[in-house]
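Example 3.
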Amino acid sequence: MKTIQLARTGQQVSEVCLGTMLMGSTIDEATSFAMLDRFLELGGRFLDTANCYAWWMGRGEFVGDESEELLGRWMRSRGNRHQVFLATKVGARLRNVAAIRDAGGDVFWDRVDDERERQTAETIRQAVEDSLRRLQTDYIDLYYSHLDDRETPLEERLRVFGDLVAAGKVRLLGASNYRTWRLERARQISAANGWPQFVTIQQQSSYLRPRPDADFGTAVNLDAELADYLGANPEVALLAYSPLLKGIYEDEAKRNAYYNWSKFQGPDATARLATLSALAAELDVTNSQLVLAWLLHRRPATIPMITGSTLAQLVHNLAAVEISLTPEQVARLDAAGA
Ligand SMILES: NC(=O)c1ccc[n+]([C@@H]2O[C@H](COP(=O)([O-])OP(=O)(O)OC[C@H]3O[C@@H](n4cnc5c(N)ncnc54)[C@H](OP(=O)(O)O)[C@@H]3O)[C@@H](O)[C@H]2O)c1
C-alpha cells in the first residue's frame, strides 16, 4: 500500500483509509482487532471513526461510543497510537439514543434529525474531550464536522475548531456531508479569521452514480460541482465513504434489498454495472475490487474508505491497491452510462 501526502498538509497517510464504523458493535472485538492488525501489516495507517458509531445497529444495545472505545483499547494494547493517523467526527451523535427506539428496538428514523447533537461551541468542546477519553489519547489527527448543521453559525464551530488546534487536541480539520458552497464558505471564514481551514471533505462516492432526483437526507454525495472544486483546490483531499454501497456490486439480490437502491437504479446504473462486470472479468478481479481500484485511479484524486464485515472481506477489498489500470481502462469505466 502506498503512502501519500494528505492534500497539501505535508502529512503522510496510507492511500486508503480503514472505516471502523461497525467495529465494537456488530463486528466483535477479536475480529476487529484482527482487521486493524492486518491493515497495519499491509501498510495502512489511516483510521476513520466518529463519536456516534454505531448507535443504529442492533436493537438498542449500542449508544455510539463503541467504535471509538474499541480503537482506544486496540491502540492501548498494541502501544501504537503514534503509528496511526486517527480521524474522528463530531455532529451526528444523538442526545438520547433511547428516545428514538420503540419498545421492540425499532428506530423512529423520522425523529433522528431532531435528536442529533448541534455543533455549538459547548457541544464540540465536550465532544472532543469525550472522544479523547474513549480513544485513550490526548490528540486527534483529523477532526471532522460530521455534517453541516445549518442551525448553528459556521463561525461558531470554526472558532472552536481553531481553539482545539491551538490547544494541540486536534491537528487537522475536515468536513463531511457539506455542499461545495458551504465547504468554500467555511474555508473563507477560517481564512479571514486566521483559523485553520478544513483540509479534507468526506462524501459518499462509489462507481454507480445517484439518480439526479435522489434525496439522501443529511448524506451528501460527491457531485460534479465538488469534483470541479477539488480539481482547482488541491489543498482539500477527498475521502469516499460507502465506496461499495454496502456490498451490492456482485449480488443482484443484495442490490435489490439495499435500502438506497432506488436512488441509483436506472439505465445509467445498468450500463455502468455491465461495463464494470466486463472489465472485472477481463482483469480476473471482482466487481468490488475494481470499484475500489477505479476510485484510486480516477479524478478527482480520492482516498477510498475501505472496510468489510469480516477479515476475509477486508483482505479481499484491500487487494484492490495492487490493481493497476491503464488510462484506457479508466476512461472506459468513466465513460459508461448516460
Ligand atoms: N461521513 C459519513 O457520513 C460516513 C457515512 C458512512 C460511512 N462512513 C465511513 O466510511 C466507512 C465505510 O463505509 P461503509 O461501511 O458504508 O462502506 P461500504 O464499503 O459501502 O460497505 C461495507 C459493507 O459492504 C459489505 N462488503 C464489504 N466488502 C464486500 C465484498 N467484497 N463483497 C460483498 N460485500 C462486501 C459488508 O456488508 P455485509 O455484512 O452485508 O457483507 C460491509 O460491511 C465507514 O466505516 C465509516 O468510517 C462515513
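DSSP finds twelve helices and ten strands in the chain. The two ends are 33 Å apart (CA to CA).
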